[in-house]
Amino acid sequence: MASRAYGACVLYQRVVAVRIMYRALSAAVHPQSHADFLKGAPHRKHPGVTNLKTLCLPDELQKAAQAIIHGTEMSGLFDKARSLTNFLWSRKRAPEDVTLRERAMALEKNLWEKAKEKGGDVDVQLLETQITKKVLSNLRKTTYHWSPMRYDEELGVVYMAARLAGGYAAVKRALNEIKKRDPSFSPHSLLDFGSGLGTVVWASHSFWGETLKEMVCVDNSGAMNTIADRLLRGGSEKYEPVIKQVYFRQFLPVSPKVQFDLVVGAFSLSELASQKEREDAILTLWRKTSSYLVLVENGTKEGHQILMDARDILLKKQEKAAHDPRRPSVFAPCPHDSPCPKLVQLPLVPCNFSQAYSPLPLPGAPDRLTERFSYLVLSRTDWAGGEGSGEGLDWARLTAPVLRRPRHVHCQVCCTSGELKRVVVTAHRHGRDVYRCARSSDWGDQLPIIQPEDDTSNLD
After folding, report:
1. For position 406, what pLDDT does the model report?
2. What is the structure's pLDDT at 34?
3. SS (H, E, C) the chain
4. pTM recorded for the entire structure
């Protein structure tokens, strides 16, 4: 018995020695130490983690929303809210006049060619009339019929029941990128373009309530501004607002010299009627930005494309008479300023993210839902290299759910090189710290990647 115990003790000591040697060798191979990029944090809370747990509306906001709903006594509110949610999710951009003309000309040319192939005597004037009717009929059937959303008080309440909690969750998740990665940022002023129910004010106040002194909400719907103001006042105009210094406007401030520390446009660009209107709005919002511009849209192909168009406009277009000459830099979610690789490599899959939240407690509503959204954060400061960049270390963005397997983790990442790659992270290749960070990370987080060329593959 004594000899067996002695043998087991010796074996255990050898195992411990091997582990120590392996860790020492791993540290030598991977010079980026635990303290360098973890900054003293545990692996599950490494600097790249920006996801939030299930979000709930602030108590004051939820109570105010319930008071407004109770006061309207609207029947079938949950069903109306669900229908509006589905409609807004499937909503597309308005077709451009140029695109419609090109399609009409192509159809007309094709019909004329078919008529010529048949030959014979043809009444040209009658044929032209028939072709015109066919072209118009085809366009009516195949063209998306876009119309602007016009919110009155009733539709505003339905929108509140449908989108208040989800919109709040998406905006707060996007703003958390700034809060987590730039903790010194303390905004004094906020501009919310297309403010709707004022969720941007509530989300921003939850992070920077102590420093925000001026919050301007711009929405062309007077009814929505009224509801947003009532939400700030506990559901009734007779109460004082919970959040002070909030001002509602129907138009953007005229002076190009007036800037705000934080400018947000959430689910608003998609409501503009044309590409020209979106471009003008984007450039105007950037002129108003002194630190960060945050754009949020639905996590659909349409929403993603709108944000990528905005990104291209700001990165490529140089204004001649700019009052603030500082150029924009992509802060999140892209770890680079190059064209979006997902549009090229996976054109049918939008770059989107998810955030769990608790919806308003309406009859029939579930306890937990997930908001799928796309977002873009641009900064007046150059953030090239990403969070905690260093020699041999890049912070890539996880663009799909992480697949955790025994002793390895499958990750789809957008890299600082501007490429979309699949990475298999292991303790042997990447080091114990990076491996444990990968197992603790999730879709939307940033991931530190050491030796990115060893085991990565481009997505075809």
Report:
1. 92
2. 47
3. CHHHHHHHHHHHHHHHHHHHHHHHHHHHHCCCCHHHHHCCCCHHHCCCCCCCCCECCCHHHHHHHHHHHHHHCCCCHHHHHHHHHHHHHHCCCCCCHHHHHHHHHHHHHHHHHHHHHHCCCCCHHHHHHHHHHHHHHHHHHHCCCCCCCCCCHHHHHHHHHHHHHHHHHHHHHHHHHHHHHCCCCCCCEEEEECCCCCHHHHHHHHHHCCCCCEEEEECCCHHHHHHHHHHHCCCCCCCCCCCCCEEEECCCCCCCCCCEEEEEEECCHHHCCCHHHHHHHHHHHHHCEEEEEEEEEECCHHHHHHHHHHHHHHHHCCCCCCCCCCCCEEEECCCCCCCCHHHHHCCCCCCCEEEEECCCCCCCCCCCEEEEEEEEEEECCCCCCCCCCECCEEEEEECCCCEEECCEEEEEEECCCCCEEEEEECHHHHCHHHHHHHHHCCCCCEEEEECCCCCEEECC
4. 0.86
